[in-house]
Amino acid sequence: MSEAFIPYGCQDIGEADVAAVLAVLQSDWLTQGPAVPAFEAAVAGRCGVPYGVAACNATAALHIACLALGVGPGDLVWTSPNTFVASANCARYCGADVDFVDIDPATLNLDVRLLEAKLEAAAGHGRLPKVVIPVHFAGQPCDMARLAALGETYGFRIIEDASHAIGATYQGEPVGNCRYSDITVFSFHPVKIVTTAEGGMAMTRDAALAQTLAELRSHGITREASRLREPSHGPWYYEQIALGFNYRLTDLQAALGTSQLARLDQFLARRHELVARYDRLLADLPVTRPHLAPGRTSAWHLYCIRVDAARRAAVFDALRTAGIGANVHYIPVHTQPDYRRLGFAWGDFPVAEQYYREAITLPLHPRLTDEQQDRVVRVLAGALA
Q1: Is the peptide bond prior to 355 cis by the omega test (within 30 degrees of 0)?
Q2: pLDDT (tens digit, 9 = 90+) per residue, 7-23?
Q3: Burial class of residue 361 in the structure, from the number of CB atoms within 10 Å of its CB (0-12 exposed, 13-18 middle, 19+ buried)
Q4: Catalytic residue among 63, 192, 270, 306
Q5: Using CA of residue 9, residue 144, residue 180, residue 247, what is the dihedral sign?
Q6: pTM of the predicted model as reported, rounded to 2 decimal places
Q7: Would you call 118 a catalytic residue per the annotation?
């Protein structure tokens, strides 16, 4: 009998989660009820930020974050090539152009030194970005203080793509508090730290931005008297004041998210335990383990190793053949056919490309047992022998 498949990521749903969703199913509100603002308040409280605006997924949250900051045709947005395509697509949805900044070979996050050099060159050409979107890859925060200082110098706004990073900290403070950014976006996909099945949230300190985000996620509609363009016709009255979208989260999802958030510390603790075990168990193998920069804690959404590029495919295949759901994060965005159509090419961002050629993501989630992790390492060691 073959051993059970081990996924690289997996949700952990408990009885309290089921009860929370059932309570909403038995209530008067399945959507646009009290569970969504309760979830928003819970996440905002955890992050130490005044406002959270939930959306149907993190891509939607990134999209309305760009719109809220005025991104439109003719504008330029920069992000990391080592990310899921949504980090770049969100700007294109607004009609903006996208470019990338290569990654730091150690942290695999956007390299702030390269960003500074690129900004200097762009200033000389008069083509600076309107927004920069740093991505907290695998759960480790970017160097946000340095990035924010460059934003002050060159006049760009900042959206943190923290889809991997709820529960992480930077300089002792929680990711999501927006101390160094205008907006931070979280994802609650099932493989993330906590889940709402699908879902995302945009955090901000700015009341006006929060109001704009909330309107954009719901068709651009407002009922607030101060926002109406003409006198109200009655208690039923609303106005569409902008072209928005139906990006709302349901109360079912929000209830699940609030319940999951109560176990965030438990989830993080188990992920940290598993990472420490991986670090010990892999110490003598010919792999490069993840590097954590000083002054940061990672949420450890992913555990990504690097192996010799010539052997990566064979090692990956050996893991999959043994029932281990290894993965690769990420194929550099600029190498995707749709981006090559825009003029990008292999060779444009060599650090991200070299990392991609060597990368393997090993299973990491709270339901992973020590015995399963031992099996992952045993198969990996055999493949590398």
Answers
A1: no
A2: 999 999 999 999 999 99
A3: buried
A4: 192
A5: negative
A6: 0.97
A7: no
